Amino acid sequence: MTALALLASTFALVFCLGLQSQLVNNGHFVSAFCNSLAIGSCNLVLFKLAPDATGLEVAAYLAGGPFGIVASMLFYRALRRPVVALPDRRLVP
User: Model's pTM, two decimal places?
Assistant: First the structure.
């Protein structure tokens, strides 16, 4: 169970850090402010779980980061994708 929590918290932390980079670089002040709270929360979970990690838990910790950053990049790209209206007035991302 701790391994899953480490995987999830590392994923969430790196996801939020990647998103934070995009938000700051594009001048989204309020979103960056709110996202900082999520970063702090993920860090707190890691500080509680990581010090006593076993081999499997360390592996879970290391696996969360790469998936988190890629997910963050895809999420931001999808979030910023323009929505266009088709001739029949349907909206398509």
Answer: 0.82
